[in-house]
Amino acid sequence: MSYETTQQHLLDEIDRIETLLRAYADEADTPGLSETGSDGGAGMHESAPEQLPIGVSESGHGELETHTAAIEQRCRETPEEIPLRLRELAHRFSLSRRHLDVLVLALAPDVDDSFADTLKSIQGNVALPRPTVGLVEDLFSQTRQQRVAAGALVGSDSPLRQHDLVSVAPAPDGTGTARDRTVRVDERIAEYLKGYAGIDTDLQAVLEQQSGDGANDSLSVRTTEASLSDLAISDDCHERLSSLPEDDGGWRFYWYGPAGTEKHRAVEAVCDEGVLRADLDAVIEARALDRLRREATILDRPLHLMSAAQATFDARERDTTLESVFDRFAGFGNDLIVTGEGEWTPSEAMHTPVDAIVEFPRPSIDLRREFWAGHADELPDDIDPEVLAGTFNLTPGQLAAALSTAESLSGDGELTAQAVYAGCSAQSADELDELAQKIEPGKDWDDIVLREETRRKLELVRNHVRHQARIYGDWGFSEQFSRGTGVVALFKGESGTGKTMAAEILANDVGMDIYKIDLSSVVSKYIGETEENLEQIFQAAENSNAILLFDEADAVFGDRSKVSDSTDRYANVEVNYLLQRIEAYDGVILLTTNYASNIDSAFNRRIDHEIEFKSPRESTRETIWKNIFPDDAPTGDVDYEFLSEFTFTGGRIKTVGQTAAILAAGNDSEAIEMSHAVRAVQLELEKIGRLYQVSEFEPYEDYLVTD
After folding, report:
1. How far is CA 683 from CA 302, 533, 653, 655, 687, in A?
2. CB 249 within 8 A of CB 290
3. pLDDT tens-digit profile of 230-268?
4. 85-92 and 289-299 helices cross at what angle (nearest 10)?
5. In the chain, which stretches have pLDDT less than 50?
6. Distance CA 644, CA 490 (A)
7. At what angle do helices 650-666 and 618-626 cross, to 10 degrees?
8. Which ranges of 542-617 does DSSP label H, i.e. alpha helix?
């Protein structure tokens, strides 16, 4: 007759231990242990505690052997689909029959209250409802030498102790010898053997606390119906995953790539019957690697350790390196897959071999195009899926998040272009917010007055940004360039000519976030610190889909000098670093400068577009003047043609217009009049130190303020 449940088998094993204790109690008055014992060749195994004999005479063996044989027969007859957890635990942790006996002995008081009374009686102490080390030694020995060897069943090298299946605690009264210590089963093991479902709730709670966000994803069993063919990965990556070793257990893998790539779903697809997933940083912080290994062994599942950034790259503590993590799982019988964002190469000092390191790169233009084309019916008519795919280099996870964000922003209405672009921009790296100033682009082409030649060049930059993927990917131009495939544009011209506004308009047009780099916080007088600051920015921007704006770029991208001292040498090192870093960068960089001649000439071959913002012509200045006052600002009879004769840049005209408004408000005027505008022009000329003649203001010279 087979077992119908795991509980039936457990209770049978407890009854068997009760039979052993009864036989032991019946012989309690038997004289002390002999030197050789009566169990035939038992002395041959004194160095192997798992093969020790039962500590009762041959006359007490009969009932025990009958009981044991009946259990073995029922186990053999039990179908494989009925899991017998005690047997499975013994197999997974390599427990011998004697280790299993000790485990059941320690568990029995937690299953049957009467067992606690039995143990108190046998051990002659009402304070001992659990077995002691001394009882274990007596139950599994027939000689004094065997008794010493039997102590190893619960010794520090025992698999019961190594895997925290049982613990050994001092006697309740705090006194006594080592033989008086008590043995008890770990609570998680007891729950498992009783047939409880689920994972270690205590371990889950600890990891949730360490993760800092209370997410119950810190430890979970993950399954998916997706196969490798369902993943949005490149053909090369698919081929690599398909060629992984057959799942015989015990493989070690490291998979890496940016956040949002399919590496996590790939783990679940490869481990199609479910995988135990945990956040590696939380596990390390909780010092729970061994407990997690035990849990994965109990559940007999592959283990996925995600977010390996700290464990991979923080070498300050040996225990947190990725090599040490793999080494800690050397004896783990199931597959171990660690995922992270950074590339990693094991050193020769690593003891545990890694069977495969697989990269999950950002999806190709074809995969991004496929995603947006698949949602073309949802997109507004004024958005080209091809442009979205080319402008925003998003991972599969980010693509789905971008569309979801756009739907939320649109509310119950149809998707708008603004919402779609905002959804894509929302996937930018958060790290940039701490390193640079985010500019909210609120300007468009109607807000700037430019020479036609300048506008055409700006539109060329826009098209370059929008169609990077097609140019470098589909059309193969990446093979023509040894440097990166990013876009680098230099906006040059004197202050106030519209360089920064043009950068803002460009970002608004292509729907990308733009971050202005504060050079005062980047450039440092300390050797090497400038490069470190810039590297932080470039790393944060690497996958941000944002535009980097280096305002007054000549401060960092200045011309290299002849080396006359160590200061010159280190300054040149900074410029050389920037040359190399921009060359490798695949994003969009805009540089603005008032002093183009100060830009190192070596940057010229890294710059794709160079646009000069010249001071506006008189006709252009008149147009700027006519648009400088907001619609809500009341104006009188202002002579815009006269005001345009002064050779101000657009930025200075804006300042003059604001000053005129201040003068009007200060005089309690109902509108901004020509008198206010003339006085504002006069103040601006004085501020910049330009001499003027009163005759220049005819016929409005009466509005001037003179001493």
Report:
1. 75, 40, 12, 11, 6
2. no
3. 998 988 999 999 998 876 678 999 999 988 899 999 999
4. 130
5. 31, 35-45, 214, 315-316, 560-571
6. 28
7. 40
8. 566-584
